[in-house]
Amino acid sequence: MTRVGVVCCDLDGVVWRGDEPIPGSDRAVAQMRAGGIRVAFMTNNSSGRVGDYLAKLERVGIDATPDDVFTSAQAAAAMLGASLPAGARVHTLAGPGVTEALTESGFELVDDAPASAVVVGFSHDFDFPRLARAADIVRAGARLVATNLDPTYPAAHGLLPGAGSLVAAVATASGATPEVAGKPAAPTVALIRARLGNRGVVVGDRPSTDGALAAALRWPFALVLSGVAGSHGEEPVPDPPPPFVAPDLAALAPMLLDGQNRPG
Predict the structure, then answer these.
(1) Residue pLDDT, tens place only, 231-262
(2) What are the catalytic residues?
(3) Cα–Cα distance, 257 to 245 (Å, whole number)
(4) Domain ranges of the chain
(5) Do residues 70 and 41 touch, judged by C-beta distance below 8 A?
(6) CB 185 within 8 A of CB 163
(7) Which residues contact 75 (CB under 8 A, 6 or more apart)?
(8) What are the residues facing 180 on neighbouring strands?
(9) In whole angstroms, how far apart are CA 167 and each of 26, 67, 121, 135, 216?
(10) What whole-number distance in Å separates Cα of residue 145 and Cα of residue 178?
């Protein structure tokens, strides 16, 4: 086994469920860092701003810097930045994280057509008027961009509708096919490689996205069963299983440290 070196760790379902920390996740991150592993965090949840995630990590006992946290909102902004001119008009049906990422990338956020793109992400403020407006703007010629297609979101007491459910509504109403930015799509792969290099391990709770991201990166996948996979949620453990499977991050950390300490 090669040295682990870097861990790209999911948040929802791995570090916390909703606002409740998953026991031992703080100690696990500290143990891995003490053992020489760089731990960074990639979330498909685009609703929060980077500062929001840093504050939440601090509340559960994990230190992090802005360079340690990246989101599907940033991936969406980078994807649009590679294909649209500076100052292009973009409409959002998403949370503050998308607003932050698009504003920092120089886009003009608008409420009505014309727009070059409509970005849809996880939002508690999704309602019929916003759905109708977003669909109208897409039908008027805007690209439909999904921060991610996760159908559900692991909360403290079960699963909530995820961004994928909201994107599906806009896609159905507009007749458009969404372009996807978040895990496991190419914009997120590029974002991770740019920040973390070419070798590491993906840690996550959702084989369909975290596992697929690991495959796209050609990195090992470490599955924790504290989120949507296994008995807690909606996805089965893959057969054959990934290289690492553990009940939670606390149980996973010693496995990754064993890989880090082997010569390679």
Answers:
(1) 656 889 999 999 999 999 999 999 999 866 55
(2) 10, 12
(3) 14
(4) 6-71+183-261, 73-180
(5) yes
(6) no
(7) 147, 181, 182, 185, 187, 188, 190, 191
(8) 146
(9) 33, 28, 7, 10, 23
(10) 5
Contacts of 197 (CB under 8 A, 6+ apart): 6
47: DSSP letter: S
Q: With a cut of 80, say whether residue 45 has pLDDT above it.
A: yes
Residues 22, 10 contacting (CB under 8 angstroms) = no
Q: Give the orientation angle of helix 128-139 with respect to helix 163-174, to 10 degrees.
A: 50
Tell me the C-alpha distance between 142 and 111, whole Å. 13
| CATH 3.40.1570.10 for the 73-180 domain, yes or no | no
Task: Report strand pairing: 16-17 vs 20-21.
Answer: antiparallel
Let me know if domain 6-71+183-261 sits in CATH 3.40.50.1000. yes
Q: How do residues 170-197 score in pLDDT, each as one tens digit?
A: 999 999 999 999 999 999 999 999 999 9
For the beta sheet containing 244-246, the strands, ordered from the edge strand earlier in sequence to the opposite edge, are: 69-71, 38-43, 6-9, 201-204, 221-224, 244-246
Q: Specify whether the CB–CB gap between 68 and 37 falls below 8 A.
A: no
pTM of the model: 0.93
Of the chain, the percentage scoring pLDDT greater than 90 comes to: 88
When pLDDT is averaged across residues 65-76 and rounded to a whole number, the result is 97
CA nearest to 46, candidates 171, 165, 182: 182
